[in-house]
Amino acid sequence: MSFSAEVRDELARSEPACEYCDLATLAALTRVCGTLSITGPDCFSLSVATETGAVARTMIGLTHRILKLKTEFTVRRSVLHKVRNYLITLPDQPSLKKALVLLGILDRSGALVSGIPHHIVARECCRLAYIRGALIAGGFVADPKGDFHLEIAVQSEALARALIELIAPLGVHARVNARRGSFAVYIKSAHEIRGLLEAVGAQRSVAEIDDARAVKSVKNDVNRRVNAELANQGRSAVAARDQLELIRQITRAGLRGDLPAALEEFCALREAHPDVSLRDLGVLAHPPLSKSALYHRVLRLERLADREGINRA
Q: Which of 288, 193, 294, 305 is nearest to 249 (CA)?
């Protein structure tokens, strides 16, 4: 099961906080993945097509319990994609138009509603229930082991904008992106995705995100340390190579025999250990020397070479 499917399944099992929350969830389900057909004057049918069992289960259960409407259920299997397709249809029946008004799909005059009616999301818990329903119906949450991404696919820009306004009080800054024939409300911040899922009750999914973030943090810290160490080793190797070349030039110039004991000690150490850093070279000295002490000896050799006109380029 994909992480998106796990999130949807967990949200579909959430308990309502008040008696109106289930209506808000059902309203979101029908708006996000439902299709309304007008078959005549005041004659309608509503169908919801989905590949997600959680959507089908929630849609049928809430429709029977809240609206008391008859539903038709069809299961088809896609040979190409090897997945089940669920089709839930609410055929024309005496109470359907009233139910469509209650769900915020039609207004009282029978016209289509573009946004989210206030009566559905008047309470804070109902606003969260509506977001939950939208996530169940059209939500996608990327596996947190990879890049963080959450989106809700909807059919109209007006609904997408309304969802963004509904989500904003949670401190989550969602954006909308136009797709071919649809719109996506999306969030890319791991912190905000976590906050949204926690608010709508996906605690198990939030725990998985926290685990993934902890693993990523450790990996990133290890990578930073490894990269820093590699960079230090690279700089040390270049410095050691330059020091060896400096020593060779001083030797070819016949100055090696007149070097002070401290500088000769450094030259001998570097020739004996051409690959180690100054810090490690100091440990090998007798008695041990600090990195700073050896660096000052390098500077003295450079000044000697400059004074004698040795070209160090």
A: 305
The answer to whether the CB of 67 falls within 8 A of the CB of 95 is: yes
Topology of domain 3-201 in CATH is Endonuclease I-creI (3.10.28)
CB 55, CB 136: distance < 8 Å: yes
Instruction: Supply the Cα-derived Rg of the chain in whole angstroms.
Output: 35
Tell me the two tokens of residue 114. 């573009």
Task: List pLDDT tens digits, range 34-87.
Answer: 899 988 888 889 998 888 888 888 889 999 999 999 999 998 876 666 778 889
Q: What pLDDT is stored for residue 184 in this prediction?
A: 92
pLDDT number for residue 147: 86
Give percent above pLDDT 90 in the chain. Answer: 37
Is the distance from CB of 47 to CB of 86 less than 8 angstroms?
no
Spans of all domains in the chain = 3-201, 235-307
Residues in the chain: 313
Residue of 267, 277, 167 whose CA lies nearest to 229 = 277
The reply to whether omega before 287 is within 30° of 0 (cis) is yes
Secondary structure of residue 282 in the 3-state scheme: helix
Contact 209, 197 (CB under 8 A): yes
